[in-house]
Every structure is written in structure tokens, then in C-alpha cells.
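seq:
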Amino acid sequence: AYKLHPDYSLLVRERYFLEKKGGDENHTSRLLLGLAYRPLEDDRFNALSKIEYKYDKRSTAQPTYDIDSFIFSTEGIYQLSRKLQLMGKYAGKLEKAERFSSYTDLISARVTYDLAERFDLGAEYRMLTSHRTNTRLHGGAVEVGFRIVDQLWLSLGYSFDRFDEDLAGDSYHGEGPYLKLRFKFNEGILKKLKPR
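struct:
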């Protein structure tokens, strides 16, 4: 991560996975470039845009196949009031292989409401569209959260869909119940850790 400006940060990440099973090998490489907007003066709106290139080579499948994926996402969070937070996201994925290509996108909206000082309630709606087959799927999730200590939340929820994790994001859980820890990390935390 690199701070371009007090309000903007540049993010770069490369992840490489190698899975070996007997004589088979699966290779996955993921290169991500992102731009985060977090204004210091008025922190009511934050945004994150990412573009990622993902390369998959699978030799466990017969015949061996390679897939190139280009994934774009942009999302924003707006603090409407002290208790109410709104989030919107668009993500698209173009997959290319030797004999086919497809484009799938995801639109999601989330609302989070603080019920009390230590409890919040969240609900999310997601719509996944596969443009190759002209199909549309609907889903979402609900969850309740509890603040354990300052900036650390424990949430219990239920997801109603099983969508593409590349589009839904790293915090996506798939269909069914889930439990997660959420930690808000910001510059204020770093200042507290810095020796006086």
C-alpha cells in the first residue's frame, strides 16, 4: 500500500498458489491493483476500486485448461447518520479460455443499523447476472453484530446464496450460517501504537 495523497491510497497485491496432488499441479496467480478513497477531513464517504488479473492453470482436470480472468469492482460506503450506514457495490468478471469467454456481474446493496451502543443489524441484497446465458440470480444475507471492544465486532449471520467469490469479495461466506470477526483498522490505531 502506498499513500498517494492524504485522502488516496494505492494498493498492489500479488498472490500465487501452487497445489500438488500426485502428478497433477494447479497454478493460480492473482495480481491486484486498487485505489482507496478515505478523506481525512470528512469521513462520511469511503470508496474502493480494484482491478485484478487472475490466471488459472489446472492439470487435475482432463483435458488441462487455462483460464484468464479480469475482475473489476468498485464500492462505496456512506454514513447517512450516526446509526445508519449504506453500502453499494458493482463487480464484473470477464473469463477467457481457449474455446469460450463469458461476462458475469454482481450488484449489491447493504444497510447497517446500530441498534444500541454495542449491537448492530445488517442486511444485504445481491443480484448476479450471467450475460452469456442471460440468467439472473438473486440472494443476500442478514446478520447481527456485537462490539466486543473498541473497533472489534463479532457477527452472526445467514447467507441465502452461493455466488462467485471473485465478485462477492474476500468476506463472502457462501450459502448458510456464518460467524465472523470484523476489525476496523485506521490511522488512529497506528497513532495509539506509536511510542510518544
